[in-house]
Amino acid sequence: MHNPRPRLASEQVSAIVVGAGAAGIAVVGNLLELLHPDSVVLWVDPNFQGGRISASYREVPSNTRAKLFVEYALAVEAFKEIAEKTPKPNGISALQELEPEETCPLEHAANSLLTLTSGLSKHPRVRISYATVADPQWSSASSSWNMRIDENGGTVNYVEAPIVVYCTGSTPTVSPLPAAMLSQPMNLDLDIALRPTNLRVQLPRNRPICVGVIGASHSAILVLMNLVQLRVNSHPDLSVRWFTRRKNLRYAVDKGDWILFDNTGLKGISAQFARDQLEGDKISEGPISEIITQVLCAGGPDKEIAAYTQELPACDYLVQAVGYTRNPLPGIHDSLRFNHETGRFMENMANNPVPGLFGAGIAFPERVVDRAGNVEMSVGFIKFMRFLKRVMPAWVKEYNDSKADDLYD
Ligand SMILES: Cc1cc2nc3c(=O)[nH]c(=O)nc-3n(C[C@H](O)[C@H](O)[C@H](O)COP(=O)(O)OP(=O)(O)OC[C@H]3O[C@@H](n4cnc5c(N)ncnc54)[C@H](O)[C@@H]3O)c2cc1C
């Protein structure tokens, strides 16, 4: 990352924001508020389509109440202007029409991201590039990052900026299965399983099939819900094996002025389904037991491997809902560590902040400790926004201070 030979930059900007999902949008909005009024932000994404929520999860029920999406969509001045100036109905006005205390299909959240993206891309201080970034190199001489921008059309540019923010998102984790298994089920992508319309066409309906589902989080429970619906509506020969480490599911609990397990507990429709269908004897004796067989994998890695080895060969397909892994960051060394309190990257050994390099979003969330002492990663539109409002003034201060110094030089 430290450059032996300086590369020529075709352009200099105040900041480069990488990624145009919920986090990248929030970062651009905050930068416009915090940076010098003559600053320019370069915003890079290959699609500018609202990130993963819009690309993959439109059909998924939210785990957040509609009012929190509205709070996010109006959280900074630039967003408010977009909401006012975009002809109605638009993605934000449609959100405002929803019942504020209820959850909603993520389609609504996705449409608000598209409205914000369109508005920000027309902002006079934002330059957008349909591209991916790679190979950042720090120049001490200019106190800037020199970033390679690979445009979708094949052109390569180099751009310099003192501030770079990665909001590059994460992808469902797929873990290796025990090698000793006689036959392995086909991997069914979590993103497909979360989308009922895709799932319906992906799974054959002319023969008995068994789908394994690993996990007990929000995503896993949504997949179970989708599979049960499929069995009822179109796939009468479908059965499900549900591999879970948890006998007792974890729910978010509203404590009045705080929420226990706010980030890891089930909420909304998935919590309702779990309470109604999966708890206690219902999973083994209720009507759902004709569709879902629970396989408990508690007791440590050896027991888990034994359960997989015995039960997975009966599955034709397997959905792994076991978490999300950061997307690759081309050119960023593995030795860098992300500081979940400040949003900065750190040099691992020295534990010094890397100058001008920051992260946000599902790949780089804030770490929070709730009042009961539980440590969680804080993931969600409004959580990204609140974290950024807390940490970004410090990110930008160094740059604004140096601009002010320039004026007096
Ligand atoms: C199933 C599911 C349901 C969720 N439900 C909710 C909910 O109800 N409410 C809520 O608030 N949150 C929810 N979330 C959490 C969170 O809001 C989303 O995960 C959100 O999509 C995260 O936004 P992001 O910007 O961090 O990442 P993403 O949306 O993944 O966006 C990352 C962007 O970075 C771009 N990118 C990646 N690499 C590069 C590169 N090298 N160069 C340029 N661009 C790059 C990608 O093209 C993409 O556009 C949910 C998450 C999941 C997985």
UniProtKB/TrEMBL annotation:
<protein>
    <submittedName>
        <fullName>Pyridine nucleotide-disulfide oxidoreductase-domain-containing protein</fullName>
    </submittedName>
</protein>
